[in-house]
Amino acid sequence: MRYGILSTLLLLGLVLAFGQACASDPQAASPHERTALHPGERIARRRCVSCHALPSPARRTAAEWRSILDDMAREANLNAEEKALVYEWVSSSSRR
Ligand code: HEC
Q1: Per-residue confidence at 6, pLDDT binned at 50, 70, 90?
Q2: Whose alpha carbon is nearest atom 17 of ligand 1?
Q3: Is 59 domain-assigned?
Q4: Is 5 contained in some domain?
Q5: Are 38 and 82 in contact (CB under 8 A)?
Q6: Residue of 52, 54, 74, 91 to test ligand 1 pocket, by largest number of atoms within 8 Å of CB
């Protein structure tokens, strides 16, 4: 009986750990994306792709991004916090 409870707990632990592994972002599949995505990138991947492909941050300067996001945050219905996170992401890898 005692071992029964122990192995049940062990099994539960394994199931929980496995569930965690499967709950990770299914889009983060390619090797360089396996590390945690910037929260701004995660927002962009969900919200900026309904009308066009995900834009590459490196193709614009931070200043260009500032004005693009003024338009596109409205298109994607981002709130101020989401917009700031997306800006943080694009500007951190923008063209210099
Ligand atoms: C509701 C549709 C829609 C959504 C959502 C949307 N966009 Fe756009 N986006 C457009 C359209 C239409 C254009 C092309 C016309 C234009 O430049 O205004 C565009 C153009 C762009 C361009 C090129 C602009 C330029 O000046 O060359 C970038 C970069 C861009 N979007 C980024 C984003 C980002 C980042 C998001 C998410 C925050 C986003 N878009 C969400 C519709 C959308």
Answers
A1: low
A2: 68
A3: yes
A4: no
A5: no
A6: 52
